[in-house]
Amino acid sequence: AFRDIFATHVTVDVEKRFVTGQNQNSGLEAAHKILELLASQ
């Protein structure tokens, strides 16, 4: 199967304290996740 090496993957831990991205291209998606977490507080 073909895998895109530039694909992004962002993960948020169970306690919603850490947001991490797979690579440098995940920065935008990680920022959106952080803003979503802040907005939901």
What does this structure look like?
Helices cover 32% and strands 15% of the residues. The chain is an alpha+beta fold and 41 residues long. It has one domain (10-40). The chain has a two-stranded antiparallel ribbon. A hairpin with a 6-residue loop joins β1 and β2 (19-21). The longest helix has 13 residues, at 27-39. It is elongated. It starts with 9 loop residues before the first strand and ends with a helix. The mean pLDDT is 90.
Short descriptors:
two-stranded antiparallel sheet, elongated, 1 helix, 32% helix
Query: How large a portion of the residues is in β-strands, by DSSP E?
Result: 5-15%
Question: Based on the structure, what is the oligomeric state of the protein chains?
Answer: single chain
Tell how many strands the DSSP assignment holds. 2
Mean pLDDT: 90
Shape: elongated
Q: Helicity range of the residues?
A: 25-40%
Draw up the topology in text.
Elements: E1 10-12, E2 19-21, H1 27-39
Antiparallel strand pairs: 1-2
Brief summary of the model shown:
With 41 residues, the protein is α+β, with helices and mostly antiparallel strands.
